[in-house]
């Protein structure tokens, strides 16, 4: 198994990880934290994928994809916090005014879980942000301890995986997802 993580640039590869089986479905496409909530509510069905394609054409940083033997098998969303709703989120605090990047979604395709891809995605997202000049990367994972997490709600990642990647606890949040508190983790790149 050969895994390579690289910036998301091919729409079909992004669609393979984030798009719905039915084009009319209203799946997230990892837009919920990326765009204003009003626009997020307005974009329905195929318009969501079209918006992602437009973002890719614009060159906006969307995230990274993991490829296993050439096929896309994992996704991590990473972008400047200022370009996300985390810039205005009342439940997730700002530690300081540093122009950090946010890493908020990790997705591994079924059949490829348990292979360490989430670790590769976190590392790849950090390297991508570093290459773009990010002074630090923040994440807002679940602090689940040893409790089980519903895989559909584990998209922010787990605290222990970010700790393994060198992130440090930076702040508590008032955000809770699927019954688990979220914490603010940070990796300084300076």
UniProtKB/TrEMBL annotation:
Cited PROSITE patterns: GNAT
CDD domains (alphabetical): NAT_SF
InterPro entries: Acyl_CoA_acyltransferase (IPR016181), GNAT_dom (IPR000182)
N-acetyltransferase domain sequence ranges: 1-190
Gene3D superfamilies in UniProt: 3.40.630.30
Superkingdom of source: Bacteria
Coiled coil stretches, renumbered: none
Descriptive protein name: GNAT family N-acetyltransferase
């Amino acid at each position: 198994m050969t895994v390579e993580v690289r910036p998301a640039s091919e729409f079909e590869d992004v669609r393979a990880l984030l798009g719905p089986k039915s084009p009319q479905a209203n799946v997230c496409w990892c837009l919920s934290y990326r765009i204003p909530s009003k626009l997020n509510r307005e974009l329905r069905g195929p318009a969501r994928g079209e918006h992602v394609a437009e973002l890719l054409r614009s060159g906006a940083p969307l995230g990274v994809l993991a490829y296993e033997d050439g096929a896309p098998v994992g996704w991590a969303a990473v972008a400047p916090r200022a370009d996300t709703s985390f810039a205005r989120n009342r439940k997730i605090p700002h530690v300081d005014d540093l122009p950090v990047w946010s890493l908020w979604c990790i997705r591994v395709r079924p059949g490829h879980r348990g292979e360490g891809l989430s670790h590769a995605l976190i590392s790849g997202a950090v390297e991508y942000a570093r290459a773009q000049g990010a002074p630090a990367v923040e994440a807002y994972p679940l602090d689940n301890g040893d409790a089980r997490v519903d895989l559909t709600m584990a998209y922010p990642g787990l605290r222990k995986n970010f700790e393994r990647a060198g992130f440090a606890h930076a702040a508590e949040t008032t955000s809770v997802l699927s019954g688990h508190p979220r914490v603010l983790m940070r990796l300084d790149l300076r």
